[in-house]
Amino acid sequence: MHTFAYKNGTLCCEDVNLADIAAKVGTPTFVYSKKTIVDDLAELQQALAPLDAHVAYAVKACSNKAILNLMAKMGVGFDIVSGGELWRVINAGGDPGQCTYAGVAKTEPEIRYALEQGVYCINCESENELREINRIAGEMGIKAPVAVRVNPHVDAHTHKYITTGTHENKFGVDITRIEALYATIAAEMPNLHIKGLQMHIGSQLTEVEPFVKAIQKVSPIVAKFKEQYDIEFWSIGGGIGIVYDGCLASGQPEWWAARPEQITIRSYAEAIIPLLQPLGLKILIEPGRRIVGNAAVMLTRCVYEKKGEVKTFKMIDAGMNDIIRPALYEGYHEIWPVTEHQGDTITADIVGPICESGDFQAQNREIADVKPGELLAEMSAGAYGFSMASTYNSRPLAAEVLVDGDKWHIIRHRQTLEQMVQGECLPEC
Ligand code: LLP
What we know:
Layout: E1 4-7, E2 10-13, E3 16-17, H1 18-25, E4 29-33, H2 34-47, E5 52-58, H3 65-73, E6 77-80, H4 83-91, E7 99-101, H5 108-117, E8 121-124, H6 127-140, E9 144-151, E10 173-174, H7 178-188, E11 192-198, H8 209-229, E12 233-235, H9 253-257, H10 265-276, E13 282-285, H11 289-292, E14 296-307, E15 312-316, H12 325-329, E16 335-337, E17 345-351, E18 360-368, E19 375-378, E20 399-404, E21 407-412, H13 417-421
Parallel strand pairs: 4-20, 5-6, 5-13, 6-7, 7-8, 8-9, 9-10, 9-11, 11-12, 12-13, 15-17
Antiparallel strand pairs: 1-2, 2-3, 4-14, 14-15, 14-19, 16-19, 17-18, 20-21
Ligand LLP binds at residues 58, 61, 79, 102, 162, 200, 203-204, 237-240, 286-290, 325, 329, 383-384.
């Protein structure tokens, strides 16, 4: 349940008027609600309480140091996918011993760094990666904790770019080969300690059914591995979807929670608990989007309006470099005026300043007929928003703000032009 709502005609995050933040920090700016993050995480932890379940927050969704620090203080672990993410977690006060390290192309320096820091487990994606870790661990004189990501071949019914659990995807080891691979590890890789099994079938799943299917398919293997290798955990991955469409829940919490077609924490937990409980294993869950997705908006300002031959365009000061989701995944984000409008709507494209036709945040959208100078809030921008931003078109990275009740803090200053070119240099000749 998020905490963005109109109060006295102005959109607020918790008790802070978004226009105040824009006046002081400028736009575009990502504004996160601490309460939403804390509440959503607590809801998930409570719902999974009947299991020995542990959250490993997927850092890639939003990796700002302040957000990671907040997670660390709430006692969650982290699912990381690079040496850089591990460094961030440690730098933010997180415990490497609570990190699972995923990814299909880990390099030797990254593997060494992860082992030196004592990560909880390296989740591997191929036999060759396992052999490489076995070699490195041998050189370091240690046993490396590993799990393998099993690809259960279950369609997650989500966008093709974020489906990961079918034969067409680069991820994991096919379910038909996983038992043979574990036997190979046990027989041939003495520097590895088989610690668990991992899976992740995709992101932004809006139904419970693919999770259920995947768990049902893999459970018998997990039970066998518990017997054969005494595995300690099963990570069932992340992927719980959020509501992007109809996310402004001002004053309608029952309606928000009760949308029948949308996965909820409750429906997810109710479906998976009975399947997992009999295994008697530690269960890891790696949510990213569900924890931070609805917890932020991106504040932007309408710069111009243009009436084209067939369309009306509202130009804003944020581009696909700030949020790439609409361009890359046809992602849908609601767009709300910061100052409430009464009934005056228009069908328009909301487009940015980037020199690409793919640079839109909404197309053919009925929205409030905002005028140049007005502020807009792009909703549900907390996950894969800033973390996927770039400086394309030499646009400095946006600012980030964390709201806590009636207080707010800058958690990332807007990048300066000098910072944007830092590291670039002329050839020495
Ligand atoms: N675990 C693994 C191994 C993953 O690859 C991911 C996401 C997660 C957990 C977290 O998934 P979540 O709970 O956030 O769905 N940029 C895309 C999403 C990419 C997801 C990549 N992997 C988007 O904006 O929709």
